[in-house]
Amino acid sequence: MSEHDLIVIGGGPGGYTAAFRAADLGRSVTLIEAEDRLGGVCLNRGCIPSKTLLSVAERIESAAAAAGAGVRFGPPQIDLGALRAHKDGVVTRLTTGLAGLAKRRKINVVQGMARFTSPHELEVTAPGAPPARMRFQQAIIATGSEPIRLGHLPQDPRIMDSTGALALADVPERLLIIGGGIIGLEMAQVYHALGAKVVIAEAGPQLIPGADPALLAPLTERLQQGTEVHLSTLVSAVRAEADGLWVTAGAQDPGRFDRILVAIGRRPRGAEVAPEAAGIALTERGFIPTTPDKRTAQPHIFAIGDVTEGPMLAHKAVHEAKVAAEVACGEKVEFAPRAIPSVAYTHPEVAWTGLTETEAKARNIAVKVAAFPWAASGRALSAGAGPGTSRLILDPATGRILGAGLSGQNAGELIAVAGLAIEMGATAGDLALTIHAHPTLSETLAFAAESYLGTLTDL
Question: What Rg, from alpha-carbon coordinates, does the chain have?
Answer without folding.
Answer: 24
